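Z., the sequence and structure:
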Amino acid sequence: MLLGGGLAAVLLAAVGATGGWLLAGDGEPSSEDPLAVASLTGSPTVRVTAPRPSTGRATPSAVRTSASATKGTGLTVPPVVGIDFVQARDMLRKQRLGWRLVFGGGAGRTVESTLPAVGTEVTRGTTVQLRVTGPAPAAEVPDVVGENCDKAVNELIDEGLYPRYVSGRSGKVTRQEPAEDGAARWNDEVSIWCGTGGAEQPTTKPTS
């Protein structure tokens, strides 16, 4: 009797273990598998559908923001709506925020909206898009030939222009296009040649 009872208990334990394995599935997803599911609350069968290729194109004016990375910093987009865009840009620069000017087809120089919105919590270095009511005004092209490359870049940015490095980023500027007082508008690029030459560098736009 004792022998029979012990054998029955062993059989019941084996059946119970097998039943538990069947309910849980045939194994947990590997943590190294990018398609692994953290928890299964319903059916153990998980169907993964490959994403369809996107047919759209990202707009250049899109600004990337991260909700998780912008919490708890205490820094917010300043109240720049309704003021002159140059003053708005300077406010962003003082807070070490980047900017992107998007000019409209109306009239005036004031900022009509921002992205992210005013009051949004952000981190330093975040690019804020400033939508201006009117078109890009004329800009004055400074003469930067003979100046150190870094100083020349700052001058161009101050005038609302974007430097385009053609031959290196160190040394003195040996050439610029357009030349001093050349026709330009805000957001236009000015090509500069620094140093003694080299491979063409990609366009660099200011972030602060």
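The first strand starts at residue 75 and ends at 76. The beta strands are 75-76, 98-103, 111-115, 121-122, 127-132, 162-165, 173-177, 189-194.

Let me know what you think.
H.
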